[in-house]
Amino acid sequence: MRQILVLSLACAALTLTPASRVAAGAGVLRTVYFSAADASGAAVSGLTPADLAVKEGGKERAIDSVGPATEKMQVFLLVDDGGSGAFQGSVAQFIETTQGRAQVAISALNPQPMRLTEFTENVDEFKTAIGRLGPRGKIQTVGEQIIGAVEFAAKELVKRKAARPSIVVMTVGGEQPQSTEADPALNALKASAASLSVVYLRGVELGKVLGDGPKRSGGMTQDVSAGVALGPVLDKIAQNLLHQYVLTYTLPDGTKPNERFELTTSRKGVTLLAPSRVPDK
Question: In terms of domains, do 264 and 219 share one?
């Protein structure tokens, strides 16, 4: 893979499963993916149920289990580079880093979303897609397209019944402020149980979707200055996803799922990336 992607390189974050299930003879089993980092940003290992506390709908729930996540990820990459090709190398590095651990789909705004790959692990398909992410001339977007692209990606993950879904947005254009499309996109994001992580050019507008979406879904937000290498920034998101935990807890029989979720830790110096909104059905 490294040899295949080297030419493209030279050119240049907690989720829930989409649906809960009924535990045998009990209530509704909930499964949550999250990550943990120390003060330096390095992944923290070895967390146990004793280190964590879960609340759903404001009520504490007993944790059944927690451990390293091993299920394959489904990652939707959305590239809004204004035609500059600025994210070409970092996308190649992301794919290389997650090789064997993720199925990846790629779309680029042109200015409408243009699908470059379906969800795949095929090296040749990635090579072709990355080649199309080079400089393409100036492309003007208005900020509505990226909102629609997030909504589409979320619905696609629901359609695929993705067990460990995430969406990663890279944007130099930002988001249309106060868009009427924001709430439908956020609702789709919640229903998909995907984490939304965003890499954006410092100074661009982030609205409800790109600004609040990562907080609601347990993703990361990374801003970058013009001219700064983007590979390490996107690699930080890749590493966060690769080092997720999987946590399960059970709602008592007859308890209706609630969208409000809170995960905390008693470990000092540890920060959790966890959603505040989860599927409520």
Answer: no
CA–CA distance, 93 with 67 (Å, rounded to integer) = 27
pTM exceeding the 0.85 threshold for the entire prediction: yes
With the CA atoms of 167, 171, 173 and 178 taken in that order, what torsion angle do they form, in degrees rounded to the nearest 10? 30
Is 51 in contact with 266 (CB distance < 8 Å)? yes
State the CATH number of the domain containing residue 155. 3.40.50.410
Q: Quote the CA–CA distance of 100 and 23 in Å, as a whole number.
A: 30
Cα–chain center distance at 87: 17
Residues 165-220 have pLDDT tens digits of: 999 999 999 898 888 999 999 999 999 999 999 999 888 889 999 999 999 999 99
**Both tokens assigned to 226:** 């013009």
Q: 236 lies in which domain range?
A: 72-242
The tokens for 178 are: 């106060």
Query: 262 pairs with which residues across the strands?
Result: 55
CA end-to-end span of the chain, whole Å?
Answer: 40
Of 138, 266, 131, 154, residue with least CA distance to 216: 154
**Position of tokens 């979406």?**
213
* DSSP assignments along 183-246, one per residue: HHHHHHHHHHT-EEEEEEETTS---IIIIIHHHHHT--EEEE-TTS--HHHHHHHHHHHHT-EE
Residues paired with residue 35 on neighbouring β-strands, in sequence order: 273
- Find out whether 105 and 118 touch, Cβ atoms under 8 Å: yes
Question: Is the four-CA dihedral 15, 201, 149, 97 of positive or negative sign?
Answer: negative
